Amino acid sequence: MHTPRTDHLLRFDHTAAAAMATTPSSPPSATTMRAVQYDGYGGGAEGLKHVEVPIPEGEVLIKMEAASINPIDWKIQKGMLRLFLPKKFPFIPDKVISMSFPNCGGLAEYAVAPASLTVARPPEVSAAEGASLPAAAGSALQQLKAAGVRFDADADATAAAAGVGPKNVLVTAASGGVGHYAVQLAKLAGLHVTATCGARNLAFVRDGLGADEALDYRTPDGAALRSPSGRRYDAVAHCAPPAPWPVFRDALADAGGVVVDLTPGVAATVRSFLHRVTFSKKRLVPLILIPKEEEMEWLVDMAKQGKLKTTIDSKYPLSRAQEAWAKSMEGHATGKIVVEMGGTE
């Protein structure tokens, strides 16, 4: 039976269409809804189809307002996680943080979620902003925590101020969906932040997000991850495509450091295992995103207070979801790409 809720909710959505929604006070009278799905691996944006499907049932029925597109969405479609995801089609894209609801995606008029993975959305946080928080900001927070960053209750200082944990952090792809949150969170933690991005976003990353130093990744220094100040890093929040380990190794401090990889491939996973068994002081750690209600509540509170801001690259109505998908696949969005269920053409 559907759990009636009338407040605004943030939903930890399945593959990466992190959903912002209002839960209806009673189930809708209609039995079908509009959704976007694909029925096989590959095909990119052209492989998405607009369909009518039955309204799902679950612990909490959510009427969708907006969903954000994340790279993990189309990576699943390309078959990069086919060992773990889905065994049969059609498949409505959803976010890879909980496999409990593999057939109920965020690119639809309604979705379902367990009550434990929904939190209230305050009026200070818009639907588009809220749709961006669960997957992207949640990934950034867990990346930094995996690197040893500790956040206090007020998020204005961490143990780093007392000499515990990393002090110099590098964020790659810092103008992207996860990266732009990682820069802000690292600054909230009181860290010195170096960031990489494209030349057109250098000012945005420095002035808009607060990075102390910014590098154009296309330059020799940017490719080598060399900080303009000569600092080497205690931790790296790696949000960009794979890079050779020697590049990270040489950029890390002599005393050691950790690279937390947002999208690890097979080589990164193998290297991580070798680092563990050899007790290497310079380590690569694949990020395994596990949704936590308390972290989501904390992120929403930071957004409510204006301490964590969401940059929206572009918005699309559900009827143009393919365009949003294609833009994400291009890999040059500044901030988040959002699909609004009630959006106009």
From TrEMBL:
Segments forming domain Enoyl reductase (ER): 43-339
GO MF term set: oxidoreductase activity
InterPro entries: Chloroplast_QOR, ER, GroES-like_sf, NAD(P)-bd_dom_sf
Organism superkingdom: Eukaryota
A Pfam family per the record: ADH_zinc_N_2
Identification of the protein by name: Enoyl reductase (ER) domain-containing protein
Species annotation: Oryza meridionalis
